[in-house]
Amino acid sequence: MILIISFADNEHVRRVTEHLSRPHRIVDIAWFPSRMALTALSGSDGLTLRLDPADGGAIEIGEVGAVWCRRLRPMTIDNSVTDPVARMFAWSESNEALQGLWHSLDAFWMNPPLADEAAQRKILQLKIAMEEGLAIPETCITNDPAQARSFIDAAGTTKVIRKAFRNIAEAPRPTATVEPADLTRLDAVRFAPVIFQHFVAADLDLRTTVIDGEMFTAAIRSDADHQVDYRQGLGTATVTPYDLPDDVAEALRRLMDRLGLKFGAVDFRVTPEGEHVFLEVNPAGEYLFACDRTGQPVPQAIAACLERHDTGR
């Protein structure tokens, strides 16, 4: 059986399940613990693990052969638990039990939980990318205002961009160029590290979706108003299929292997000179915006990967 850890109203998930012929179930972390029971029961045959969602039949974890972990929602503690300390304790205990279940699951994971967690770290991504021969932008990550100012000054006429490690809904921070007004606020860097990078002038942005070593790359040609971050200009961009050069594709496979990822959405920029510059890999990145315009069969490839590795019942 294929277990999908996500939520049913996720369009990326729905599009993949259309192509699954093997038994599969979707589990939403938001059901736990208020609307889903977890049981680990020892016996003569070992430890039996199961989940019992309130709105569906039991899931015997021993029957799961492949897992797709995609965009989780937070756990939901029952509203009747009102004391803040009690709610914190309930959350902690629930998290420990759920994580223990996941790490006990002997199955193919896309992506393994520990690898997924580590691979989100931008510093680690850049380090491994360089070691594997991928070009990266000139970068300074710091909470030292003097270091930040020195990096920006040394760039000279080259534009510098600033971006967050992770965009959170409560405090969105778009990728943007460092403007003169930002320099007057540079001392605020001491409150939290910022990623500064030289702006990479590009003919194309690339989004490469990697699925168990298989790659689907879309080339994105943006208009003049969206040269810093193509995501804001997808409505006016031209999106076409693209073939990564062999040396770049092989370096990317090595990067994915070292990060332990079976799935990743990878961003590159192609300079006017033809250099492919690695920007980042998102272990749960979106792909429909690209494959729907290129015709590349990404949902089908994810479904095929899961079915190929599903050794359960």
TrEMBL record:
InterPro entries: ATP-grasp (IPR011761), MvdD-like_ATPgrasp (IPR048936). PROSITE patterns: ATP_GRASP. The keyword Signal does not apply. Residues 126-307 form the ATP-grasp domain. The keyword Zinc-finger does not apply. Keywords: ATP-binding, Nucleotide-binding. This is MvdC/MvdD family ATP grasp protein.
